Amino acid sequence: MTPLEFAQVFFYFGLLVICTPLLGGYMKQVFDGERNLLSPLFRPIEELIYRLSGVHPELGQNWRQYTLALLIFNVLGFLVLFLLQLLQGRLPLNPEKLSGVEPFLAFNTATSFMTNTNWQAYAGETTLSQLSQMLGLGAQNFLSAATGIAVVLALTRGLARRSTAELGNFWADLVRAILYVLLPLALILAIILVSQGVVQNFNTNVTATTLTGETQVLPQGPAASQIAIKQLGTNGGGFFNTNSSHPFENPTPLSNFLEMFSILLISASLTNTYGRMVGSARQGWVIFAAMLILMIGLLSIMFVSEYATNPVMGVAGTMEGKETRFGIANSILWGSATTSASNGSVNAMHSSFSPLAGGVALLNILLGEVIFGGVGAGLYGMLVFVILTVFIAGLMVGRTPEYLGKKIEAHEVKMATLAVLLPAASILLFTGLASIVDSGLSSRLNAGPHGFSEILYAYASATGNNGSGFAGLNANTPFYNLTLGLALWLGRFGVIIPVMAIAGSMAGKAIAPRTAGTFPTDQPLFVGLLIAVVLVVGGLTFFPALSLGPIVEQFLMSAGRGL
Amino acid sequence: MVKQLRPAVFMLVILTLITGIIYPLVVTGIAQVLFPSQANGSLLGDNAQPLGSALVGQANNDSRYFWPRPSATGYGTLPSGGSNLGPTSAALAELVGQRATAFRIANGLATDASVPVEMLFASASGLDPHISPEAARMQVARVAAARGLDVSRVAVLVEEHVEGPQLGFLGQPRVNVLLLNMTLDRLQ
Asked: How far apart are CA B14 and CA A208, in angstroms?
């Protein structure tokens, strides 16, 4: 790595640390319903939306009502997006006259956007009309991100409040997340992206005649508006097939930096919002620190691996699947951010990364998407690990585990375990199934362990609601569209429902006074314990699978054996 | 359940309207006023008969031009794509060998000369418009000979087209192949 590349990485994380308390503090005001910077502009719109929908934002919901509202809203959103794709051939804003999407693919894509995953079994420029992209995918980019934020707000209130059943109002949280946080940020980012060359129009594709007299079709459409929210909302579904490696989706190093920064911005800031809402900023910073240390540690492995010599190719630092304007450093940094944060957008092809760099990207997802993670989803996932850590620490010192003054009891530990086990089961069982049936195996592009990694990555990505892929795998088949679609549902709601149950039971508890025997959760020791628990749980669950894929491949590569 | 259905339907409709229609239209409006050229694809040449986009690479193996990187799709745009070949792919290793040999022969380099790494591997999008300054410099002699131009004149042209890191520290130094080739054509 050159000093210049180091400087870019340092600047990236430095800016993240600076922005976290700024945006975090602003979001605290927003979600507590306080007056904020944008109140004069959006307060009237907000109230109009409540009035039209018959919602009383001050009316608290218990965990069942909150979860039910969330589920109904998401299922409806799924249905609309599903139908929109099936019928796009007969709807307006379809300048390329694309026909309706095939049902299996439409099911997969609708599920994937509703669950904030944005797995791309489709190729944007040849599958989806401008209306489907904008009204369907674009809108779900906002709605699914806001849903994730809502869940973590409910959990936060469950931890912060005492002896109540009320976790806040889902509709209010949803509307505020969109109006005050996602929309303004997306608007600013979209305009800057256009200035760099990201297309934003409603034109038909342009046909150019190249210097050598051939024709080249230049795809057009409202890309910038969608790309801005796909980065900020940790959605990741590209306007074009190759996502943010496409020159119209990510044209310059500056657009690259801003898109890459947007991946982590909201998720990181939410840790600060959390700290403020539970009344101790340190509690937020403890979680932020654990996430940052995990990310930088794993990123270092990726860098070392990617710059090392590949004896099979006879080259140090290959450029397969990477763009010249970004180079290796920015491709790897993006790869780390997008898999840590369940974003899933890519600016380089992960399948062509060196074995350990691709393996760490996979591990980032397997750890449960808790290293910053999806907006909201990363934090509530990490809080599940916090509960497990407090429980394990309590066992070690022989005291009743407590978090923020509340006792962690059997019910919470059961639910936390469920939230960890359900996704793990989905990943391993589906990967096992796809590895023994022809319809699973026949989709592989690469041979040997890399082919297995393609399958494992697909189910990890779907279950973790990430959306990136070892894209050699032809996932647009009925088998994969269906099984990956099921993994998407399991990975999203298999975590959300247990988390909401924890929120409900924690809200009802009284807060015990702090004593000398209370295990402190706002100290560096706790950061270390939390990191250890995340790594041990993830490692024990997935080490066998990882050793069949990236680890074997690393040995093969070191021996100079191509397959 | 039924009590929650009404807010769910209304919320979905209203929020879809805001985020799926109003928001992209507002962005389009602002973009078309402030940055019309960028918003419409940074097209080159005249509007009726564009030559391409300043951002999208073009296939070119004519010896009178600088060559871009290998592309898994042959610079096809519908859809864009990378090779997705893995780090231990024998097929990729073979391609790398062929590309190195072809680049050396075409540009009159020694058989053991090192070839810039991006010329051996296909890009992620298949549309990478750039190559490294080194890769451009290595092609100068060939292009100058094919066009009957002075080598130093072409070399100066290449240096003029080297873009440094953006804002002084972001990204890699690079040369936009299409823009360089268009300047070449204008020379004659």
From this structure: 40
Asked if residue B148 and residue B89 are part of one domain, the reply reads: yes
Tokens 């060359």 found at? A197
**Claim to verify: residue B50 and residue B31 sit in the same structural domain:** no
Q: Is the pLDDT of residue A536 over 80?
A: yes
Total number of domains in chain B: 2
Q: With contact defined as beta carbons under 8 Å apart, do B44 and B50 qualify?
A: yes
Token pair 């996602």 in the structure block, residue: A182
Q: What is the pLDDT of residue A123?
A: 79
- Both B12 and B78 in one domain: the answer is no
Largest distance between two CA atoms of chain A: 80
3-state SS of A412-463 is HHHHHHHHHHHHHHHHHHHHHHHCCCHHHHCCCCCCHHHHHHHHHHHHHHHH
Find, in chain B, the residue whose alpha carbon is nearest to that of A355.
Answer: B87
Q: Do B15 and A178 touch (CB under 8 A)?
A: yes
Residue B164 and residue B124 share a domain: yes
Q: Mark whether B73 and B155 lie in a shared domain.
A: yes
Q: Does residue A173 surpass a pLDDT of 90? A: yes
pTM above 0.90, yes or no: yes
CA angle, residues A257, A336, A382, in degrees to nearest 5:
110
Ranges of H-type helices in B73-150: 90-106, 133-137, 140-147
Mean pLDDT over the full length of chain A: 95
Residue A65 at interface with chain B, using a CB cutoff of 8 Å? yes
d(CA A158, CA A437): 44
Residue A359 and residue A372 in contact, taking contact as beta carbons nearer than 8 Å: no
Q: Are residues B13 and B48 in the same domain?
A: no
End-to-end CA distance of chain A: 29
Q: Do A319 and B23 touch (CB under 8 A)?
A: no
pLDDT of residue A125: 78
Pick the residue from chain A with its C-alpha nearest to B44.
Answer: A208
For residue range B101-147, what is the model confidence (pLDDT) as tens digits? Answer: 999 999 999 999 999 999 999 999 999 999 999 999 999 999 999 99
Dump pLDDT digits (tens) for A130-171: 899 899 999 999 999 999 999 999 999 999 999 999 999 999
Q: Is the pLDDT of residue A398 over 80?
A: yes
Cβ neighbours of residue A124 closer than 8 Å, sequence gap 6 or more = A133, A237, A238, A239, A240, A241, B79
CB atoms within 10 A of CB A13: 16
In this prediction, residue A563 carries a pLDDT of: 85
Residue A514: the pLDDT is: 82
Write out pLDDT tens, residues A251-263: 999 999 999 999 9
Residue-wise pLDDT tens digits, B112-123:
999 999 999 999
Range of the domain at B119: 43-187
Shared domain check, B78 and B161: yes
Is B18 in the same domain as B47? no
Contacts of A174 in chain B (CB under 8 A): 11, 15
Contacts of B165 in chain A (CB under 8 A): 4, 253
A208 has which bridge partners?
A: A216
